Amino acid sequence: MANQFDVLILGGGPAGYVAAIRAAQLGMTVAVVEREKLGGVCVNIGCIPTKALLHSAYIASLLKESKDFGVEVGSVKTDYGVAMKRSRRVSDQNSKGVEFLMKKHKVTVVKGSGVLQPGKKVKVGGDVYEAKKAVIIATGSRVKGIPQIGLEINKTTVISSDEALLMEKVPASLAIVGAGAVGMEFADIFNAFGVKVTLIEALPRILPLEDAEASDALAKSYKKRGIEVIAGAKVTKATVGKDKVSLDVEAGGEKKAVAVEAVLMAAGRAVNTENVGLAECGIQITDRGFIKVDKNLQTTTPGYYAIGDVAGPPMLAHKGSREGMFVAEVLAGQKPHAIKYDNVPSVTYCHPEVASIGLSEDQCKERKIDYVAGRFPFSANGRARGTGETEGFVKILRDKKYGEILGAHIVGGHASEIIHELAVARENEYTVEEVELAIHAHPTMSEAVAEAALDSLGRVLHI
Amino acid sequence: MATKVHMEALSPTMEEGRLVKWTKQEGEAVKTGDTLAEVETDKAVMELVARADGQLIKVLVPEGSTVPVGNVVAYIGAPGEKVPEAGAVAPAAPTPSAVSPQPLVAPTPAAPAPTAVTTDAARVKASPLAKRIAKDTGVDLARLQGSGPGGRVIKRDLEGSSPAAPSAPVVVRSGAAYEDVPLTQIRKTIAKRLAASIGPIPHFFLTTEVDMERAAEARSALEVKVSFNDIVIKAVALALTKHRACNAWFQEDHIRYWNEVHIGMAVAVEDGLITPVIRDADRKTLVQIGAESRELAERARNRRLKPEQYTGASFSVSNLGMFDIDQFTAVINPPEAGIIAVGSIVPKPVAEGDKVVVRRRLRLTMSCDHRVIDGATGAQFLKTLKQMLENPLAMLL
To answer: What global pTM score does this model have?
Structure first.
C-alpha cells in the first residue's frame, strides 16, 4: 500500500525530522507531514535566523569599538533589511539541508496539515496515511500574545518574533514584553540596529529562569548599552494605535508610561495541540496544555507518541531532537538511555552570551543542598582580555560532600560553546576534580571553567 | 619491539615462582589476557597471562624452573621478530608498566583488607561520582549492577531506594567495612605486658561443650544437605555480629573492629594448611556457605586459590572433628584476634534432671588474642555461639 509506512511523523521541526532520520537509520519506512517548511520554527523563524541577526548585531557593536583595536571604519551604518535578507538566506539553506537529509534517508515528505485519526492514521487533505508501528506527534509551538491586557498580536504595532524576523526597517522605538531568551536576543539585536529598546519583564529579574547572578550581569550590561530594563513589572494598560503603542507599566510601586512605535511580544509560546485530532484519538492533555506522555514518550493512546515542545518543557530544539532519537530507538525495540531532563543546556545568545546547565544557586538553597560556588571572572582570563570580552564569569556549583557538579552558569563571549564541557561532565557524572584534571589549553576562555572548578575546591590559581 | 613477559608477583607475598607448565608454546599466537603459563607461588598455582598481542616468539625458562619475580621468562612480538641477547635477560628489572597489573598490597605479613583492590575490582565500570560515594559509604561497586551506559554504575545505583536487584549472593552494606579505634592507654599496657608474657600474641583459651541434638535434628529434617561445619561457620558469623569486640584485627597502634564478617576456614592441604575466606558469612544462607566452602576447599587442595580468596578474614574457624579430635586449641592467624577450634561431635552420657541420657556433644575452644579480647568478652561471645548451636532458632533472633 503506497500510503503505509512504519512511522508517520506529524511535524518536520527539529524533533520530527531527527526522529525521521533515526527511524530511517534503524530500517523503518518513514513519512513526515509538514505544512510549512522543513526545519520548523527553529530553522525558519527561530533559532537559526536569530543567530544570523545576532551576528550582524555583534559586528555592528564590534565596529563601534574598533578604534580601540586600531581599526578605524568611520561612521558605522546599519541596515536591518540587509541583515534580515541574509538571515533568510541562512534559514533557507538550512531548510534545504533538511530536505536533502530527508531524501538521503529516503524519508517521504508529505506537504500539508495532518490530522490524526484512530488506528494509527493521519489524514492530509484527502489522503489517509497509515502507520504500521507508530504515529509521532511533533507539531511544536507558536508565538502568543497577551490578549488579556490588550496586547493581541496585530502584526503591525503589536508583533511577535515572526514579524520581527521579516522586517525591512526597524522602528525608532520598541518595547519588548518578556525577558526570556527570545526577548533578550531581540533586545540585543534591535539595540545594535539603533532602536530605543525598553525591555519589560513580569518576574523580578530578566532571564528569570537563569541564575540570579547571570540576570544581574546582563541587566548591568544592557543598561550600560542604553537598553531600558524594567523587571518585576506589570503592564496594567495597553493602548494600541495605528503607529504607536502606549503602555502603563507598574514596577516597584511606581507607575510609568512607555510610549513606543511597536511592541514585541516575547512572553511564552503556545503549543500546537489544536486541530490535530488529539481528542478524536483519545490522546490526553496535561493541566498545563502539553500532551500527556509516559517515560517512553508514548501518549495515553498506544501507538501515538509525542516529542518536542508539545511533549512538555523545556521547549528547546535540542531537547526535541533528543526525544526524536529516543522514540525512534524505542520503536526499533531498543532500550535507549533515559533522557536526563535535568541535564539539558540552556543558552541565550545575547551579548554577552548566557549558558547554563543544572541547578541555579537559588535552587540549591531551596533544596537545602550543601554546596560551594566556585567562580572565575573573564576579566581575569587572558584570552578574554585579548579579545575585549571581559564581561561575565563562569560559576560552578559543587556538592560539598562528593564534588558533584550541581549546576554551571556561564556569562560571557562564547558561553554557548563553553558550556558543553560541563554538559559532558554532568552526563558522565564527572566531579569538579575530573574537570579540573583535564588540561585546558592556554589561553582560552575555557580555562575559566577549570579555574571555577578549582575555585570550588578552594584552589583557584589566577585570582 | 618485542614485549617482555615477566614473572609477576601473583600473590601479595610471592617472591619467586615455579614455572609449572607453559600453556602456550613458542610460535603460538597470543592475545592480551591469554594464559601463557601456570606458575606455582607460595600459596597456589596461578596463571601468568599475556599483557600484549602477538606471537609467543621466545620462551626463556624451561618448565619446572623457579624464577624470581620480575625476571623475563618469555617474549611476545611479531612473527620472526628478534629478541634481545640472552645476556640482557637474567637480571632485567621489571618495568612498572609490564609487570603486575594487580595493584599489589605491600608484602607484609598482615593480610590485606578484603576491600583492597583486586584486578577485577579495579575494572569496575563506575562514574567518578559513584566511585566517590562508594568510597565514602563503603559500598562495594563490584557487587552492584550499573544502570548507566554499558552497565556503568552511576549515582542512582547507589541511592538506597533503587539499586537494581543484583544476582545472589550479593551483600550490600550501607556502612563502612570496619572502624579503626586507637588503642587506649590501658589497652596499650595490656598489649605490652601480656605479649611479654607469652610470645608476640598473648593467647588464652576458652572451652565450652555444646549440645548438638537439636542442630542434628534440624539438619536431618532439611531437604538440602548441610554439614555441621556449615552450621558452625554460620553460627560463628552471626554470633560475631552480636560481639563485634571479637571480630577484630590487632594493628599495633589501633584495633580494627570489622563491621563485615569474613570467616577464614582452615583447610589442610598436602604440605600444610591454608585459610580460604567465606566473605560476609553472616549474610549468606547455609546453602551458600556450604557451596562456597566446598568450592574453596577444592581450590585450596588444588592450589588454585586466588589471593583475594585466602586473605582478609576477620575471624577463623578450624575443624578437626573429622579426625576424631574431641578438643584442641588452634593458633590465631594474625592480625585476627580469635579462632574457634571445632572438635568432633561425640555421643556422651549427660545428666538431664536426675536421669543420665546420651546426647551428641561438641567441644568448641576459642583462642583469643588478649590484646584485643578479654576473658569475659570472649566468654560472652562463646555463650551466644553456644546458644545458637543448641537452639538453631536463636540464629534468627
So the answer is: 0.62
